[in-house]
Each structure stands twice: as C-alpha cells, then as structure tokens.
Known about the structure:
Layout: H1 4-18, E1 40-51, E2 54-56, E3 59-61, E4 65-77, E5 86-100, E6 108-113, E7 117-127, E8 132-141, E9 162-173, E10 177-188, E11 191-194, E12 197-201, E13 204-216, E14 219-230, E15 233-235, E16 238-239, E17 245-257, E18 262-275, E19 277-278, E20 281-290
Antiparallel strand pairs: 1-4, 1-20, 2-3, 2-19, 4-5, 5-6, 5-7, 7-8, 8-9, 9-10, 10-13, 11-12, 12-15, 13-14, 14-17, 15-16, 17-18, 18-20
Amino acid sequence: MLSFTKVGRSAAALAALASLPAAAADTNARDFFSAPPGTQLGVLYLPVTTANSFHSQRGDVGDASLDVTALAYRYVWFTDLCGTLCTPQFIVPAARIDARLPGSRGNDALTGVGDPQVGGTLFFVNHPEQREYGGLLSLLTLPLGRYDPQHADVSPGANRWGATFLLNYTRGLGKNWVAEASLEAQLYGDNKDYHGAVLSQKPLYRLQAFLSYDFTPDTYGALRLYHARGGAMTLGGSQLADTRLSYTQLGFEAGHWLDKQNQLMVSAARDVAAENTFRTSQLMLRLVHVY
C-alpha cells in the first residue's frame, strides 16, 4: 500500500503547479473584453502565493507550507484572420517554488522557467456597445520548463503536456456593472518520470466568476470566485487515495488605466475552503501595455 507521505507529496505537486499563473487559465475581470483587430497587448503578471497548511480528507496536515514567487509574460494579438475575432497568444512563466510537503523532513525549493503555453480565444459573441462578449480560450501547455525528477514537486516545469479549455460569457449590466462566468477544463498528459514512476491525473474542472463595477471611466473594482474539483491521480498504475482536490477561492481586484496605453491591476485572494490541497493566499500585480 502506498504511504500517506507519497499520497501527500503527489497531491502537493498538483497544488504547487496550479499556483503558477500560466499553469492554468486563471482569468481576471474583463479579460474577455475585445479590442479592434490589430491591437496587441503585452501583459506582465507578478503573483505571490503562500500557504501554511495542507488540508486533506483525513484532516489538516501539520508542518506543510508553500511559497511561490512567480513572473509571467503574456502576448496577445487581436485579429480577424480566423473569420471572426480571435486572439493568438503565448505565455512564458518563471517561478521559485519553496515547499514543505506533507510528510517530508524539510523544505525543498527550485527556481526556473516554467512550461510555456500557446493558444488563443475565438470570439463567438462580440458586441462592445452592450459590453457583451463570449469566447472559447484554448491553451496548449508545452513540457519545456525546468524539471528535475529529484525535485519533482517544486519544479517550475511539470514534465507533461497539457491542454486547457475555458468557455466564457461576459455581459454588461446597466451603465456600470459587468458580470461574467467561465467554465474551464484542464487536461493533463502523463509525467513519465515522477520520482521514477508514471504520474497520471484526471481532468480538473473549475468555475470562474466575476462581478465588477466602474467607479470612474478609468477605474473598476471586481469581486471574484473560483471553485475547482477533480484532478485525482494514479502513480505507477495505482490509484492514489485522497488526491481528488476541491477548493473555493474568493478575491478582489482593482484596475486603473494610467493612460490610454497602460493599465495597472492589483488583486488579493484567499481559499475559503480546501480539500486535498494547500489552503493558499495570493497577491498579484498585473501590468498591461497596449501596442
């Protein structure tokens, strides 16, 4: 029988990977607002994620912690070459992950470039005058990031292919309010060298929802909700118990256009419920430049 240490380490690996901004389609309020064809965006993300407890179905696991300091660059191009508006894009992350995993004797840490992602959004609703948008964001994760099989749980790269699909609908409500919701599925290939064994993972499903308000034409605030379920794992062909995770995260964002080309956004979020994963707190600074 696999030990709880191995079970905890495997679940912690997923939590560490999911903490990277480019490891999943973590969206922010108004991300699906469109722009005229030819518009280009350069987006810089600076997130910090911390946790001092790991929650499992068996109860809290003591002496577990997670600290992730990351940086990610995202390039987005709005074009009508798809026959409708679409946004070819790529994301390149880097991170330092420092974790004390459940059952381990001490901290482990690694720094490096994470797995890049390529893809884009295909808009099927685009009515800027009503602030109504809808689209499908598809991202392919390339296993090119730094990965060390001796430090698999804290490696910035995951040593596996991945695909993320996120279906969004955004709608303005009255003059100042905007509501939006996204349904997301994360699919994973196998990591064929996870501590010398093959690690497989079932899909993870998430709901992302936002309600935002314009305080001025240049400044908005938003409440956000993330809820995730899934991601159970097998290691070496054996099902790992207590690895189907679930978490609910609440957060707040505030964005301000400094001028016509530059926007600054700050966000703070915290997991209010977590099962088989770290309970995290997150702070992020985002800079957007319009070319």
